[in-house]
Amino acid sequence: MTTAHSPKLSTPPGQGTQPSPPPSMRLRELAFGAACAAALRAVARLGVADALGEQPLPVADLAAAVKAEPKPLRRLLRAVSCYGVFAEQEDGTFAHTEMSRLLREDDPHSLRYITLWCTEAWTWDAWPKLDEAVRTGRNVVEELYGKEFFVYLNEDAPESADVFNRAMTTSSRQSAQEVAALLDLSGASSVADIGGGQGHVVASLLEKYPDMRGTLLDLPRVVENADPRLLPGGALADRVRIVPGDCREDIPVTADVYIIKNILEWDDESTARCLRNVIEAGGPKARVVVIENLVDDTPSMRFSTAMDLLLLLNVGGAKHTTRSMEERLTAAGLVIDEISPVNPYLHAFDCTVPA
Ligand SMILES: C[S@@+](CC[C@H](N)C(=O)[O-])C[C@H]1O[C@@H](n2cnc3c(N)ncnc32)[C@H](O)[C@@H]1O
């Protein structure tokens, strides 16, 4: 062990001193993947990344700052630093790394809420039932909690719903500007974001096009907490309509362009109903832009396939391949005009409702 009082290692532990472990150990490490996820969750919940500034700190100081016991905190930090989240220094202090900084709440690219979301309490109920989901092809959440995932989240797990909304806020804030930069909506006078979360995409598009009107449709509890720019008194409020609703039931919104981003990841019936409602609402010649992560075109298969399995567990859904997305859009009656990358993780399927 490297502490302030023990002989120093020439290179801190877990920092590349070890050769790659043999397959038998690598498999053991993989089987213990839950320990890594739990350790990241604990670090995020304790707020260790926020307590550490630019200077390395002794564990005792960090423990006092996050109200934890120093000895178990050292063990926790040693566990995550094996993965490059914090780095133990030769004098036993801990310093930030590129990854640990992303756990800070104030980092502009913060992944704190994404980390919490991926490890929420319900996920620990659901993962042990993955074999069951693979056998049946159905979600396990309804059997676990007696209701659909988003209904469960909003009715029974408000803290988890809040983490979800914050995680979505982080990731959609980061991608909304890229979506707005990619999409050329000149010639259109209105845009609707279906299942648009808190409305970052619609807000970015209204900022890009000062004469455009917009609509945000999402579940009631979600739009209540829409981006302040869209709410009464906000800079874009007079150009936006907020519609609480269920896009599988009805889309009472007329617009020239419909955006559907990271929604069509649930069961096929829900995807078909949502697309049918968009086509009915927009009518012939409406433009429909579907934006999704694709499992066959991604810089991280590990992340994309993990999300894909989580979607199977919670909504009986899936991340799409280019082909499975094309099939669903075409089956709904849309014509796909173009598929283009928004960023390395997201692709836009630009479609038209035929005349
Ligand atoms: C993965 S998030 C994507 C949010 C947003 N489009 C984005 O890309 O940031 C899925 C969204 O679908 C919404 N949602 C789930 N079921 C819905 C339904 N039946 N009708 C409308 N929105 C729904 C959720 O509330 C959530 O905001």
TrEMBL record:
Keywords: Methyltransferase, S-adenosyl-L-methionine, Transferase. InterPro entries: COMT-like, COMT_C, COMT_dimerisation, SAM-dependent_MTases_sf, WH-like_DNA-bd_sf, WH_DNA-bd_sf. One of its GO terms (biological process) is methylation. Residues 29-103 form the O-methyltransferase dimerisation domain. Residues 1-24 are annotated as: Disordered. GO terms for molecular function: methyltransferase activity. PROSITE patterns: SAM_OMT_II. The keyword Methyltransferase applies. Residues 127-333 form the O-methyltransferase C-terminal domain. It comes from the Bacteria. This is Methyltransferase.
